[in-house]
Design a protein that fits this description.
By secondary structure, the protein is α+β, with helices and mostly antiparallel strands. It has helices spanning 13-23, 29-32, 66-71; strands spanning 37-44, 50-56, 61-64. The chain has a 3-stranded antiparallel β-sheet with strand order 1-2-3. A hairpin with a 4-residue loop joins strand 2 (50-56) and strand 3.
């Protein structure tokens, strides 16, 4: 899913359904989702990679790793 987008693009409504469920598994979900999530975007990560970004209803962007959501590891 991640590679279907380029940095700055908004995640489609269909992909948002699946990404929301995955994001809820993130170890820091409570902190990263404070205030509610308005949408998801793709952004540039470290070392030229891409990552997902949750955009709160107030416009604050929180990048997150889908791998961390799967493994639920903090390190």
């Amino acid at each position: 899913m991640l590679n279907r987008y380029i940095p700055g693009e908004r995640v489609s409504d269909t992909d948002t359904v699946h990404l929301s469920a995955l994001f809820e598994r993130h170890p820091d979900y409570a902190e990263k989702s404070k205030g509610g999530i308005a949408r998801f975007e793709v952004t540039t990560g470290d070392y030229g990679t891409q990552c997902f970004c949750a955009v709160s209803t107030s416009g604050v962007k929180e990048g997150f790793s889908y791998k961390r959501c799967v493994t639920q590891r903090l390190d």
